[in-house]
Automatic annotation (TrEMBL):
This is NADPH:quinone oxidoreductase. The lineage of its organism: Bacteria, Pseudomonadati, Pseudomonadota, Alphaproteobacteria, Hyphomicrobiales. InterPro entries: ADH-like_N, ER, GroES-like_sf, NAD(P)-bd_dom_sf, YIM1/Zinc_Alcohol_DH_Fams. Residues 13-330 form the Enoyl reductase (ER) domain. PANTHER family: ALCOHOL DEHYDROGENASE RELATED, RETICULON-4-INTERACTING PROTEIN 1, MITOCHONDRIAL.
Amino acid sequence: MKAYVVEKYKKKGALRRADVPDPQVQNPDVLVRVHATAVNVLDSKVRDGEFKIFLPYRPPFVLGHDVAGTITKVGPGVSRFKVGDEIYARPRDHRVGTFAEFIAIHEDDVALKPRSLNMEEASSVPLVALTAWQALVDIAKVKPGQKVFIQAGSGGVGTIAIQLAKHLGATVATTTSAKNAALVKSLGADVVIDYTSQDFEKVLSGYDVVLNSQDPKTLAKSLNVLKPGGHLVSISGPPDPAFAEALGLNPLLKLVVRLLSRSVRKKAKSRGLHYSFLFMHADGWQLEQIAGLIDGGALRPVVDKIFPFTQTPEALAYVETGRARGKVAIKVH
């Protein structure tokens, strides 16, 4: 089958179109004919080698973390799906590779595609929606009446997180540029801060939750907008000891992770705040809940551009410019 592979870890390294073996279907797997996939910042970071200490892949490997498609084969242990089902998924770590014509996925990572979405729209959802769900529902446990600050509201995670926070009953603030203010307001943002001319640290105060997706400087400033007992959830680092424990890292790497996040954890603790790092994980059950919210009208994906499969490298390059509104999808079949 055709696929786009990472030949070696390299910053801004080129993806190579290649013929690779068809996936092997294991006992609990479904084989999916990929109709569409989507590009995430995570794809760039994996290719660049940013996570190779914690999440090693052996080059050459197929990149890609989002998929929507049709099941063409099921393993003998599969009970929830059948051939012909239209699904969407974020395959689990070490089994990614959606920039391809086919992929085998553990059935626990899979959910039926939202009926109201086409394949390209559905492919744009899994990674960012799971990230938003795990940050706001699992970790922060957002409740009605709380105030939530979501950074980069017009980005992939931001566009979904704003809608999910509103669905949970929160008042939502976000940052974006002036040209995207109307978009984030249409998604439900109550307070919109133009990051090019305003400092969110001076505008916001008394927030219950911050979803941080930016640089260390922004992370440090985010602590200042939280009220005592507030929760800072970061998807851009630094990783914390709970992350190291969940990955089963060796003692040396656990120490490294502890040192990386020591400063922010210490500052948070001194102010009566909580700090958590989120590296989202695959979860088919959560995708079922998310599909229900989409078909019920509570969530809608924002797709900026759709590229043909032959332009997968160009799609990745476009996401790396940081100018995409919402997600960038790739039509494969």
